[in-house]
Amino acid sequence: MTSRSFARRYLVKQKGLGRIFSREPGNLKAIHSYKYSVLVNQKSVSIEPAGVSADQPAGRGVAVSTRKGKPAVNKIANTRNQYILKKGGSRRTAGAVASIVGKRGYRADLLKDSVARSSVILKSQRPSTGRQTAKPRKVRGSKAKTLVHGAEATETEA
């Protein structure tokens, strides 16, 4: 099976979107293009939440996996390097992702996209603060103030 028929499997074409997207696992921006394709490139970067795979414990963090240079043909399980980043905050994780992807010279063209992807994943893992209640509106105008304060005065007297 050719890589072209594999890539066609993941295409997302819809009218009005303006571009063709991809459901390819590991695609950083979910855009159908040679640059982001994991199937075609020898060096590919995949960033996903830690705990997505069966071999990882669930929880907060980011899993960065890169493809090894020249893996053995008969050892498919050892074709990827996996880094699980759980310690520290978002800045430390972003620095580690930048180091793995760009600074070591692996795929410098994907540096910004990979850091952005990791920060979005960490943001989604943050506990929500909940919906804040709206502050009561301030009463404006002298007539409105007398109505409100007059009603409050009668309530306190009763």
Automatic annotation (TrEMBL):
GO molecular function: structural constituent of ribosome
Keywords noted in UniProt: Ribonucleoprotein, Ribosomal protein
Record-annotated Ribosomal eL28/Mak16 domain positions: 9-124
Compositional bias annotation for Polar residues: 121-132
UniProt-annotated stretches for the region Disordered: 121-158
Cellular component, GO annotation: ribonucleoprotein complex; ribosome
Domain of life: Eukaryota
Compositional bias of kind Basic residues: 134-143
Entry's Gene Ontology BP terms: translation
Protein family membership: Belongs to the eukaryotic ribosomal protein eL28 family.
PANTHER family, per database record: 60S RIBOSOMAL PROTEIN L28
Name by which UniProt lists this protein: 60s ribosomal protein l28
Organism of derivation: Ceraceosorus bombacis
